[in-house]
Specification:
- The chain has a three-stranded antiparallel sheet.
- The chain has helices at residues 2-16, 19-27, 32-42, 47-53, 59-71, 93-96, 99-114, and strands at 44-46, 75-80, 86-91.
- A hairpin with a 5-residue loop joins β2 and β3.
- By secondary structure, it is an alpha+beta fold.
């Protein structure tokens, strides 16, 4: 039993170090790919535009996801010193480099999941 448990722990550690797992932990989830996709399409968006463009996300969650993406170096937050406050979000080059990955995921989903639902 102990040998089996050790094997499970080793496999878990290997999976946690897998680049795909790390990618999904950082960029995956329910909201981050949607935020990135909207910024790929629109170049620059304000907070309220993102909020209106993503059905079902709370403002608190959107704010947290944007902060996470900014810390990862995927988006840039540009704040203007005006009243009322104006903040714009756009993708960095690192963020733009996600376009082929998201496009491939979209194509795969269309071909393998959505196609089967019709």
């Amino acid at each position: 039993m102990e040998i089996y448990r050790k094997k499970i722990e080793e496999n878990y550690l290997i999976a946690k170090e897998c680049p795909i797992t790390i990618f999904m932990e950082q960029i995956g989830g329910k909201w981050k790919p949607v935020i990135i996709w909207l910024l790929l399409i629109n170049d620059v968006m304000r907070f309220n535009e993102l909020d209106k463009g993503i059905k079902g996300i709370s403002q608190k969650m959107l704010s947290q996801q944007l902060k996470d993406l900014e810390q990862l170096g995927v988006i840039i937050r540009k704040s203007y010193p005006v009243i009322p406050p104006k903040v714009e979000y756009s993708l960095t080059e690192k963020g733009k480099s996600l376009e082929p990955i998201l496009t491939s995921m979209k194509s795969w989903t269309n071909e393998n999941i959505l196609e089967n639902n019709h």
